[in-house]
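PROTOCOL LOG
Step 1. Enter all chains and additional molecules of the complex.
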Amino acid sequence: GAVVSQHPSWVICKSGTSVKIECRSLDFQATTMFWYRQFPKQSLMLMATSNEGSKATYEQGVEKDKFLINHASLTLSTLTVTSAHPEDSSFYICSASGRAGDTQYFGPGTRLTVL
Amino acid sequence: SQQGEEDPQALSIQEGENATMNCSYKTSINNLQWYRQNSGRGLVHLILIRSNEREKHSGRLRVTLDTSKKSSSLLITASRAADTASYFCATETSGSRLTFGEGTQLTVNP
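Step 2. Run joint prediction.
Step 3. Record the structure below.
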């Protein structure tokens, strides 16, 4: 089956620093990748949708200048949390699909803790 | 607003019993999917039911979909302690966009 990886699996950083999270599709080409955020004991909230080679589409209320998304290749998307603050601490999960309408395959998630 | 509300929020049963979780949504959908998440881990896709389907089975899982009521249910039969996890429904609308429900925390006691 399709495999999606994320790196790192967890990261701790100081307030004000930037953190980059990678999402890779290992055995298929992902035209579309999605980024979700999940706070403890809550559901997944879609942050943005990225299509290879084009700008990401952000959900309402998500700051595009704070959460920079790059989908430069068919197997890699990155999420950079800029000037991170403690309230950005969360579980970030990506998913990837081969094309619109295809099943999304989820990565294992990245736990971000901002001190 | 968040599409997809699930009930119950938490469910505790004994091994061997059946577990039923419900999901309601608000808008038209292409399909509805159920996922499982162990604590602090990623999502595992369980089953997908299309908008023109009414029932689907996969092993010990049975999913129903009632588009007139905009609701779905997930039944896990003969539950096991290893089934302990959070279960989420997710509705897919245009552009493969998934909207997740609030989730049900299932605890199966040995």
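Step 4. Note key features.
Chain A touches chain B at residues 32, 34, 36, 42-46, 49, 91, 93, 95, 97, 100-109, 111 (CB under 8 Å).
The mean pLDDT of chain A is 92.
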